[in-house]
Design goal:
about 10% helix, single chain, mainly beta, Lipocalin
Length: about 140
């Protein structure tokens, strides 16, 4: 669930808007992939409970979340209008999240469908940055 909340918000922060009044609207996915241009990358996600997660969103439509040096969630992501949806591996259901307006440092909050703040997200690297522990 940490990854899902973080991912949804992360995707919305692909490139911070130049003005705070500009909405964050992802581009339309290509026909061959569910990835959205500019959304792939590595993000620092601070969950509402203070948990720090590093999330990597890949252009192939997959994501992974790392906390305390351990992979805690993997799955697939997709853009759904202005929301990012995460479908974790296993029995957990898909969850979608909307991103808010970025502030001066480029971070933004993610919210669930009820408007609850789920996380604060900030891009920390491009898609090629490795954040997963190596064996």
């Amino acid at each position: 669930m940490l990854a899902a909340a973080a991912c949804a918000m992360l995707a919305a922060c692909g490139n911070p808007a130049e003005e705070a009044d500009d909405p964050i609207v992802p581009e339309t996915p290509t026909a061959t992939t569910n990835a959205v241009d500019g959304m792939a990358g590595t993000f620092e996600v601070v969950m509402a409970d203070g948990t720090l997660v590093t999330q990597t969103i890949r252009s192939d439509g997959t994501y992974s979340d790392v906390a305390d040096g351990e992979v805690v969630e993997t799955g697939n992501w997709r853009a759904d209008g202005t929301r990012l949806c995460y479908d974790p591996e296993g029995d957990e259901p898909e969850q979608c999240f909307a991103g808010g307006q970025p502030v001066a440092d480029g971070s933004f909050q993610t919210r669930d469908d009820q408007g609850n703040v789920i996380s604060t997200v900030r891009r920390i690297g491009d898609e090629n940055m490795t954040t997963e522990p190596t064996a």
